[in-house]
Predict the 3D structure of the following.
Amino acid sequence: FGTKCAGCDQGIPPTQVVRRAQENVYHLHCFACIICQRQLNTGDEFYLMEDNKLVCKVDYEQAKQRDKRLVAVVIALSIPNSFDVLAEGDATSKRPRTTISARQLERLKQAYKESSKPARHVREQLAQTLGLDMRVVQVWFQNRRAKEKRLKKDAGRTRWGQYFRSMKSGSREKRRDDDKTDSELDLDS
């Protein structure tokens, strides 16, 4: 009934160290490229396939190039003007997932405290010092701002919800007091 590894489908004890990719959880030894068997570490770029298998970026790019050459040969033999078909096939490729290390995350949080919307040159400098792609840093800041906005919105809902609940409970107490007053009047008459 507990958490199961997306790689081997075996149970994972709650005390065991795990790796995550989106909503999938993996044993450390299962968090590896299915092609080269290399264990993926924090900060490595990888592709999460539809069957929850992981492929490192290098192997994925090589496989994509092999497939592209094979597809190009097949298409060239059967269809004239094959370049248009190849361009459409490239649009379905998935992007690599980036895992951010604890050190990188702390540095990003520190930069966010300084400015939630840093200038381009600040993002470029961050990307260079952290060894991350510029787009990864940009998306991290966008996601962080969205999270802050969502948390503020949820906090406002909670605050108003508490206010309205207190108003309801206050009106119930008032009704009870009114009921007591009515029954006391009945006794007096």
About this structure: The chain has five helices and five strands.
